[in-house]
Design a protein that fits this description.
2 copies of one chain form a homodimer.
Chain A lengths: L1 H6 L1 H17 L4 H7 L3 H16 L7 E6 L5 E8 L2 E6 L4 H12 L3 E5 L5 H17 L7 E3 L5 H7 L8 E5 L2 H10 L12 E5 L5 H13 L8 E7 H17 L3 E4 L1 H6 L4 E2 L13 E7 L2 H11 L4 E5 L3 H10 L4 E6 L16 E3 L7 E3 L5 E12 L3
Parallel strand pairs in A: 3-4, 3-6, 4-5, 7-8, 7-12, 8-11, 9-10, 9-11, 12-13
Antiparallel strand pairs in A: 1-2, 2-16, 14-15
Helix pairs in contact in A: 2-6, 4-5, 5-6, 9-10
Chain lengths: ~375, ~375
Amino acid sequence: MARGLRANAAEICAANAKDMERGRAGGLSKALLDRLHLDEQRLDALAAGVEEVADLPDPVGEISEMKRRPNGLLVGRMRIPLGVICMIYEARPGVAADASALCLKAGNAVILRGGSDAAESNKAIGRVLAEAVRSAGLPGEAVTVIEDTRRESMKELLSFEEDIDLVIPRGGEGLIRFVAENSRVPVLKHYKGVCHLYVDRDADAEMAVRLALNGKVQRPGVCNAVETILVHEEFAKDLLPKLCKALGAAGVEIRGCERTRTLFPAAKAAEESDWPAEYLELIVAMRVVTDMNEAIDHIRRYGSDHTEAIVTNDYAHAMEFLRRVGSSTVLVNASTRFADGNQLGLGAEIGISTTRLHAFGPMGLEGLTSQKFIVFGDGQERT
Amino acid sequence: MARGLRANAAEICAANAKDMERGRAGGLSKALLDRLHLDEQRLDALAAGVEEVADLPDPVGEISEMKRRPNGLLVGRMRIPLGVICMIYEARPGVAADASALCLKAGNAVILRGGSDAAESNKAIGRVLAEAVRSAGLPGEAVTVIEDTRRESMKELLSFEEDIDLVIPRGGEGLIRFVAENSRVPVLKHYKGVCHLYVDRDADAEMAVRLALNGKVQRPGVCNAVETILVHEEFAKDLLPKLCKALGAAGVEIRGCERTRTLFPAAKAAEESDWPAEYLELIVAMRVVTDMNEAIDHIRRYGSDHTEAIVTNDYAHAMEFLRRVGSSTVLVNASTRFADGNQLGLGAEIGISTTRLHAFGPMGLEGLTSQKFIVFGDGQERT
C-alpha cells in the first residue's frame, strides 16, 4: 500500500487537484482547503505512516490467558479480527490510507465513505489501495470506497447491521451525531473533549503552570487540549494570579468564576455555558474549588468522559482522583495532551471512544479486534 | 442480597403464587409454569448463587498492562464498571437475583425488566434486593424493577441511550429480535447456537462417539448442544454406522445427507432447512464431508458463530481448525457443552455473545466492565 501511494502520487495528486478546484469554486474555507490538499510530500508522509503500521506486531492470532481447568482442559483466548469496519469521514483524504492500513493490519476489511469534497481524491486513493491489496494476494474488496456521497446513501450503509461490524466516524460533531443517530451498526465515537486540569492544594506551582500551558497552548485545536482549569482555593490564594499571567502571556483568554476574578480581575466573567464548552482555541475556563470533591463533582457534571489530569504532591489525592474520575484517560502530574494512542504506547490510533463499551479512550489495533475462546482437550465431556 | 432472599422467602413465594395462579388460569404450558415456579428450595439455590458471586474477586479497580514509556510516564489500565445495565427477560424470576448480583459485583446499576407472567415475583424480588443494597449503604435505585410490562414501555426503555449503557436480553429468539431491532442502546445477545462437531479423518473413534453423545444427549435443550455432526469421508466409511447406532440407542433421530444414508440407511433424509436448524431436542443433522475445508465451509455457511469442536489426532488439523473457525468458542477434542462461563473458568455467566464487539462468547464479570487509561507522571509535557 505504501509503495502504491508513492508510485501513483501523480495520479492521486491530479485527482486531488480536481477536488481542490471544485472546493475553491464552491467557496471552501482556507482551513478546509488545507485539509483537503495533497501533494507528493503529504503522500510520502501518508506512505510512511502506512509503513509504520505494517511494522507493528500482528495482533491477530495472539493467544492469552491460557489456563488449565481442574478437568485438564486448557482454556484461553485467541485474538481475531472484528470483521468489516466502515470509516466515515469528511474532507481529509489521508484518512483513507491511514484507516485502511490499521483495519487491514488487524485482519479486517474496510469500507471507506469520505465526504463529497474529497470525492476524487478518495476514489484515486481507494483504487491504489485496493490494487495493492490484490497484488498481495487478498481480495481487492477488502478496501472498498463508497463513491456515492449523498446522505441518503450513508443512511442505507448504516442500516447494514448484518454486514458491517463497526462504524467509526471521524469529523465534526454534526457528522458524528448524524452517524450515531442513524446507525443500526455499533458506532465508536467521541463527540468532544472537554478536558480538565485540576490543581490540588498541595501542588508544585511551576509544574501546574507548565502543564496548564502545555495542555492549553501546545495545540489548542485538538480534543485532548485543556478547556477548564480547576484550582483548589488554598493553591489559588497565592498562585492563581501567577498561573493566569502565564496563560495570558501565551495569548490565552481566561473566563473565570467570581473567585477567580477576585484574585485576577483581568479575567472575563465565565457564564454557565463556559463550563461544558469545548473551545478548541486559546480560551480557558477557570474555577476555584473548595476541595477535590468539588473538582470531581464539576468534572462529572460538565466533562465529556475524555481526559482529566490532576497536579498534586499528595499521594492519597493522586490515587483517589485516579479511582474516582470516570473519564477514559486520567493522569497524575502529566499533560492531558498525552491522551493519544501513540503517546500511550498503542503504536497507532484509529480513534478515541468516550463510551465504555468495547473500547474506552484511544483505540489502537487491539480496538479493531476481538477475542474468541479456544479450548485444547483430550476427550473431556461434561457431566 | 442472599440474606434478604432467604429472610423474605415467604413474601416472595406468596407473590410467586399469584403469578402461578394467573399463569394456570391463562393456560401457560407446564414447562413455562415450571420456569415460573419459586419455592423455598429454589430461593435458597438463588441465594447460594448470589453468595458465590459475592465470593468472586472484585474486578473493579484492577490495574493491568502498566508500562513505562520512554519519557518516564507510567501508563496502564484500570478496570471500571460499565454503568447502567438493563436486563430484559421473560418468565424466569430467578434472573432478577442472578443478574443483579453479577451487575452489582462489577460496580454497575441494574434495571430489571421481566415479563408480565412473572410480574408479582419480579416486584417482590426487586423490593428485597433494593432493600438489601440500601442496607449495605448504596442507593436502592442501583437495583430497579420496571413494573410496566407492556411492549411499548420496553420500546421506550430501549430508547434511553444516554442513560443505559448496555442491554442484555435473555429469553426466546422472538424477545431477543424485538430488543435488537428496537434498541438504541447497545445489545449483547445471541440468537441461537447451531453448534457443530467435526470428526476428522484421523480421529479416535471411541472419543468421537463419546463427544457426539455428550454434545447431543447430555442436555439437548441448551444453546451449546451439538446440532450438526460433520464426518470426514475416510472416517465415515468404517465408523459412521457405529456413531449413528450409538446416537440411535440414546434416542437421537438422525437426519443425514445422501452419503450418510448410504452408510446408515436408517437415517432420515436431511433437507436444506436441517443445516441451519437449532433443534434443541434429540435430533441431529449429519453430513459426510470430503475434507476439513468442506467442514469449515459448512460451518461458515450454516453456523451461528457460537461453538464448534473438532475431534482429531492430527496436530496440524487441530491448529488450523482453531485458527480458521471464527466462532466464539472453538474446541479440540472436547465437548461443545463446555462453552459456558463457569466451565471456561469465568466464575459466572451473565450471557453469551455471538457478535464480536465488546465481548464474544460466554461473558462473566469482566464482560460487565470496561477499562480506562491511567497515567502516573512527574510533570511530563508533550513536545
